[in-house]
Design brief:
By secondary structure, this protein is an alpha/beta fold. The protein has helices at residues 19-26, 30-44, 88-100, 117-132, 148-155, 168-174, 180-192, 209-220, 250-263, 280-288, 308-318, and strands spanning 49-59, 105-110, 136-140, 159-161, 196-198, 201-203, 228-233, 268-271, 293-295, 321-322. The protein binds S-adenosylmethionine, 6-(5-methyl-2-OXO-imidazolidin-4-yl)-hexanoic acid (DTB) and iron/sulfur cluster (SF4). Iron/sulfur cluster binds at residues 63, 65, 67, 70, 72-73, 111, 142.
């Protein structure tokens, strides 16, 4: 398709995407896809601002779930040091260091199926104290029950991360201990509590393009687009069932980011796990495709992430500011390209 539009092709915010429409976006010539994604990105955000979050694993390993990608599952044989739930003081000091290094959000992850009541008070204290440092707060604790989402909100939680991970069809190949619908239920609780939803998935798990289409369809057709959409590139860890999976074509990863940007124009799309194996040129393409958030600091939860100095040099090289991407209004409807 050759574009002769006078106004830039800006995709509208919709919740009724069909798989055929999404497939057609994936099938566009690469340059056309990136052009559309970049135009849509610019209609909503400063293209040179990238949000930075730092992750901390507050409880590590021995997880009862069997997620095939995850080194923290007790079902797999990854070589991992288990760690009980951290003390609040240790978490706060890690958060302070992350803030001083330039992070604006601190994400705390626990290897749980769902948080137990006896641990929950300590997590609420972590949220309160990290928030008091002037950081945005995010936690990922597995499935939430009853009023847990509301209590997190009251403690000052800004974001809850809970990923759909893959398409509904491929999901059962990756996780058997909880269902896709369980995940949708937790997302509904988080949304209803008024906490921002951080929800995305993983690519490079041996899924087909149609599964990537199905993942993005599920995300884009949620009642509200997740405010934050992490797109993880599988980090293969020895001892997990997915170690040894054939690597996904990096340009297909860029396409996935671009389609996420087009389907969820006003959401912050995070170039999430997997950056350690990416060179600067590939990451630059991901930013061009509309990614505007990263994890910053040399560790994700249990695996590596580029060193902070490398990311600072990358931002400098690309003229990117580490800053909250400020939402802009999209082009007025009369100028917006129709639908897909
Ligand atoms: N236990 C909680 C849960 O799964 O809901 C929270 C932590 S879990 C590690 C958070 C997310 O990290 C997973 O949903 C998955 O998308 C991502 N993740 C875990 N291991 C990964 C890997 N090896 N490569 C890429 N992403 C991964
Ligand atoms: C997300 O989507 N990716 C992050 C965060 N949310 C919690 C986790 C990535 C984990 C990568 C494997 C590890 O370090 O254990
Ligand atoms: Fe447990 Fe989360 Fe890892 Fe799944 S992704 S095994 S729930 S820590």
């Amino acid at each position: 398709m050759f574009f002769t539009l006078r106004s830039p092709p800006v995709t509208a915010i919709r919740h009724d995407w069909t798989r055929d429409e999404i497939r057609a976006l994936f099938d566009l010539p690469f340059s056309d896809l990136l052009y559309r994604a970049q135009c849509t990105h610019r209609a909503h955000f400063d293209p040179n601002a990238v949000q930075v979050s730092t992750l901390l694993s507050i409880k590590t390993g021995a997880c009862p779930e069997d997620c095939g990608y995850c080194p923290q599952s007790a079902h797999h044989a990854a070589d991992l040091e288990r760690e009980a739930l951290m003390d609040v003081e240790a978490v706060v000091s890690a958060a302070r260091a992350a803030r001083d290094a330039g992070a604006s959000r601190f994400c705390m992850g626990a290897a749980w199926r769902s948080p137990r009541e006896k641990d929950f008070g300590r997590v609420l204290d972590m949220v309160r104290e990290v928030k008091a440092l002037g950081l945005e707060t995010c936690v990922t604790l597995g499935m939430l029950k009853g009023d847990q989402a509301t209590r997190l909100k009251d403690a000052g939680l800004d974001y809850y991360n809970h990923n759909l991970d893959t398409s509904p069809e491929y999901y059962g190949e990756i996780i058997t201990t909880r269902t896709f619908d369980d995940r949708l239920d937790t997302l509904a609780q988080v949304r209803e509590a008024g906490v921002n939803v951080c929800c995305g998935g993983i690519v490079g798990m041996g899924e087909s393009r149609d599964d990537r289409v199905g993942l993005l369809e599920s995300l884009a057709n949620l009642p509200e687009h997740p405010q934050s959409v992490p797109i993880n590139y599988l980090v293969q860890v020895a001892g997990t069932p997915l170690a040894g999976t054939a690597a996904l074509d990096p340009l297909e990863f860029v396409r996935t980011i671009a389609v996420a940007r087009l389907l969820m124009p006003a959401s912050v799309v995070r170039l999430s796990a997997g950056r350690e194996s990416m060179d600067d040129a590939l990451q630059a393409l991901c930013f061009l495709a509309g990614a505007n958030s990263i994890f910053y600091g040399d560790k994700l939860l249990t695996t590596g992430n580029p060193a902070a100095e490398r990311d600072r040099a990358l931002f400098e090289r690309l003229g990117i500011q580490a800053a909250e991407p400020v939402a802009r209004c999209a082009a007025p409807p009369a100028q917006a390209a129709a639908g897909g």
